[in-house]
Amino acid sequence: MSYRLRSAVTFGFLMVMLSICFFALFSSTAYAQTQDTYIRLDTADTNFGSRTYLKLNDAGLTRSRLILGFDVPAVPSRSIVGAAKLRLYYYTDFGAGSGTRTVTAHRLTRDNWGEGNGTDGPTWNEYQHIGASHPASCFAWTTSGGDYDTGEPPIGVAPISRENYGWIEWDVTAAVQDAVMNGDAVVAILLKQVTEDKLVGLNQFDSYFRSSNYATDPSLRPRLDITWALPPTGYNGPWLLLLAISLIATGVFLARAHRLTGAVKAAPQVRG
Q: Which residue would you say has higher pLDDT here, 66 or 226?
């Protein structure tokens, strides 16, 4: 390996280690509070906010989607989000379908809703629904089934298989970083299956997740784990020490590599 190439590789490695050390020293993890429910096409004016489960369905006529909102005020607006993982606990399923489904996460463009109580709350048709009488205080989604960024790629993707129970994870780092930078108090997310055209009773299956109302084991409720770091301002002893060590180490390596290269060039050539 040439001197220049070796120097570049080593410098890059040191910078990566510096970044890792930065997050190791300054990062913290927030377990955000949540509001959640599911919305269903065939019961388009019914709220399910009081349920202890979230139901995801891929049938064309009975499809259901999940909507979740997470509070993020604990993360300062100038933070660097290292990772944000949406995690739901998948505990059972039902239906005749088989194989693996792909579930995508999308950014909801509305966050002014609450999960509801089984009567009032978001439904397939409305993000604010009051009972069954549709008074003036009810407000419809722009598009039934939830308003989300249809023109953007999903903010996260995860596969779900029959009986493959446990935690399912979506990487939503970019969406959370945007929310933090914009000073948003809530990150609102919609989960849906890529294909929602299965036939009821034939090739459809329902996936069930624990909701924020699940009291038997609260550790299984939906969660958004955020790892973030706040860049230092002013004097910060550990940060300056780490930077100094990294620069010194880089300088020592470059000097040593230069000496070794010079020694190789100066060595006498032996010809047979």
A: 66
Q: In the predicted model, is pLDDT for residue 179 greater than 80?
A: yes
User: pTM score, two decimals?
Assistant: 0.74
| DSSP line for the chain | --HHHHHHHHHHHHHHHHHHHHHHHHEEEEE--EEEEEEEGGGTT---TT-SEEEEE-BTTT-EEEEEEEE-TTS-TT-EEEEEEEEEEEEEEEES--SEEEEEEEEBS--------SSSS--SSEEE--TTT--TT-EE-SSTT--B-TTS--SEEEEEETT--EEEEEE-HHHHHHHHHHT-SEEEEEEEES---BPTTTT-EEEEEE-TT--S-GGGS-EEEEEEE----S--HHHHHHHHHHHHHHHHHHHHHHHHHHHHHHSPP---
> Taking residues 122-129, what's their average pLDDT?
89
pLDDT at residue 117, rounded to an integer: 85
Domain that holds residue 247: 3-23+235-264
pLDDT at 37: 95
Residue 272 lies in a domain: no
132 and 241 belong to one structural domain: no
